[in-house]
Design a protein that fits this description.
By secondary structure, this protein is an alpha/beta fold. It has 9 helices and 9 strands. It has one domain: TIM Barrel, CATH 3.20.20. It catalyses: L-histidinol phosphate + H2O = L-histidinol + phosphate.
Length: 272
Amino acid sequence: MLKWNGHTHTPYCRHGSPADAADYLEQAIRLGFDRYTFSEHPPLPQGWVDNEPLMRELAMDLQELPSYMDYVEGLKRSYAGKIEVTVGLELDYLPGRTDFADELIAPYADRLEDLLVSVHYLPGKGGMRCLDFTPADFREGILEYYGSMERVVEEYYDHVEQALEWAAYLPVRKRLGHVQLIEKFRDALPPIDDSQMNERLTRIKPKLLASGMGLDVNTAGLRVGTCGKAYVPVWFLQDCLAFGIECVYGSDAHKPEDAGAGWDWFEKAIGQ
């Protein structure tokens, strides 16, 4: 099995480590990885969330995208023969503004090798809200807006399904990012009904297959105090594998020491 970390970040991430991306690669090489994907958060539309300090943390500025691409391509060249580096982005599904994302990546269509398509935002109080910012912000801006966790979960998975329909046409290798990010703050919020979650995940499997997308087996939730589990349940991972959906481990590392975090969980979950 190819040892591949398919979801990681760089110093271009405003809410991560300023460490050089080479430090992530050195850690990955020590851990025996064969392939390493950098998938940074690309720019967002101006004023996407109505919180200027938060906006500055969420993604790189528009003028930084060309230098990010050059930066990762430089690493790809300098580490050739040591580890395969692939050039990627974690592209947000932007309800009502998919045109922005389409135009953003169009100039790089022949340079991008991987896209992680993720749902980080839901309509909420005052406009778009970031669902993985803080438990207090989730409660005030999203839970109070929808009135119950059941309605929030329905809205989240509706957006995931819309993201799959949109991303099916993106001309690059792609995966659905952290399919259970909605559980990041599960221990700090009202409980989610497991049967509801399982029903929505079951609906997603054929849509994943039809879209030609793989699955980001994201282990970051194991490192989150209010979650404590991967953002993909084992049964869903195993069902996706049985469906022939490509399932790629992703540490979602925002600092070098996490470049292989959760790999043991992944190996056990896929029965290796």
